[in-house]
Structures are given as structure tokens and as C-alpha cells.
Amino acid sequence: MKNTDVVALGELLIDFTENGKSAQGNPIMEANPGGAPCNVLSMLTKLGASTAFIGKVGDDMFGRQLRDALVEVGIETKGLKTDPTVNTTLAFVHTYPNGDRDFSFYRNPGADMMLGVEDLDNELISGAKIFHYGSLSMTDERCFEATKEAIRIAKGSDAILSFDPNLRPPLWGGDMELAKARIAYGMEQCDVLKISDNEIVWFTGKDSYDEGVRVLKDRFSNLKLILVSMGEEGSMAFLGEKRVVVRPFLNPNTIETTGAGDTFMGCVLDYVLKHSKLDYDESQLTQMLTFANAAASIITTKKGALRVMPTKEEIEDLLAKMG
Length: 323
Description:
globular; 38% helix; 26% strand; nine-stranded mixed sheet; 323 residues
């Protein structure tokens, strides 16, 4: 019985983002709820999907803030566990003038790494239409084993599997070959892959995104829909022999890009939910990417992501204005 549209597993953390300076000239950091999988779920929830999260936070003020944030936006929390001894993971985000970011993580360990196989809600996973995951839950053996087991359960229940590597090099302890091997595992399991421009170049060694996608398709025959997010260049979708490129909606009010890729992914998964099988023509792929690009543009004008995802009406208004 499929009773949840999308279940995601992974990190739930606090993104400390810069928000001005104090009277003494020190940076003021705002504690924004974050974590890529939950950002994706938050966007889906805004579009009317039922969602649930599997992960772990600490028994501390930040863990409680994060749990409250999920409840506030409508994400089911019965799969969210609390670790009594390890603190909630923190990320400090430095934003450059062009909106790009640099991350400093406090996660050695962090509570999200403590998720074990015994923490999984098997019924929740098997009841998902789509199971979504990333690579931050693959950086440590304990959470990697939990991720593999969750993937096994999801595949066994005929869920659509969705993967966004969301590569964060500092979290791999300098072992980028391990990162590449585990991200390859994630790619081997999924039906839908969303990969960013820098990630596909790093993983395939190809500067051309088309060549990089060809490498992925040749290596991973399971991949049905491949999405490449290209920032200021827009996005691409590859499905069978179909290839679609859609321009971005560059917003003059952009302040940071945190959550843009997750917003994009949430919109894509919503399209998959509403159009069943992964079999679309070029017109449908264009429609999917255009809506997702517009939503991603809106989130770049806001601080944080999880609690401020755009509504369907906001996205449609932007599309109407842009013609």
C-alpha cells in the first residue's frame, strides 16, 4: 500500500547563514533549518505532496528546532530519530557576492551520521511512491549501511528511486576516491538522477555535459531520467534519446543560492508524481524544467530554504511575468 508520495533519507542540519554585521562589525549568523533531502520534501509539500523524512538529530536546542520546522512545513517526522549523545550537525555558509557558497561543517561526528539500520522505519520506506536520497548519508559506515538497507527496501517495494549526490568534499575527509565509489553506488540504484554541473565534470572527467551524460548512461543502464543543473546556464534533461535544455530565470534580487538545486529537484519529483511513468516527450520535459527553474530562481531571493519554499502560485506568477 503506497500511502506516502515521497520519503527521503539523509541529513537534517542547521545552516548558519550570514545576515548582516553587528555593531562591533562581527558577522551575524542566522540559524536556518536545512539539509538537502528535507529541502526537497519541503518543496514537494508546498506543491501538495505527502512527504516523510528519515534521519537523526541531536537531543539539543537545534535538534528540537529542526523537528519543529518539519512539523511546521508539513513533513511527517515519525522516521526522525533523536541521538542522546551526539549533537545536531551544523553548517556555516559563507556567501560570495555572486551568490556562490562555501561551507564549514561541524560534524565530527554529527547526529545525522549516527543513523543506523535499526533506526529505519521499514513500513514508511515500503509505503513510498518515490524514495529520495543523497550522498551525505554515505560518508560514514554506519549511515551508509542504513542508506543501503533503505534502498533495498524501497527497490523491493517498486518505488521510484531518486538520487542527488549533493557533493560536499570537506565531509569525505580528503578521500575523494571513496566519495566517487559511493556516489557510483547511489547512481547504480536510482531511476532519477539529478547532478550539478561541477559534479558531473568531477565524476566523469568530461568538460562537456553531453559527454558526461553519455558516460553516465553507458555505465549505469538503470538511469531513466538524468537532470543536469547548470546554475546561471539553466538545466538539462535526458530521457532515452531525448535531450532538452531550458534557460534559467535569472533574478536580479538573488541573495544566495542555498537550496536552489533542492527546490528544482522537488519540482521535478512533483512532476514525476503527477505524470506517473518516466516516459515524457520533449514538450513535457520542457514544461517540467521550466517550472523547476522558475521555482529555483525564487528561492535564491530568500534566506534559508526549508521554511521558505515558494508556493505554486508564486511560481506560476513568475512564469506569467516572464512570458
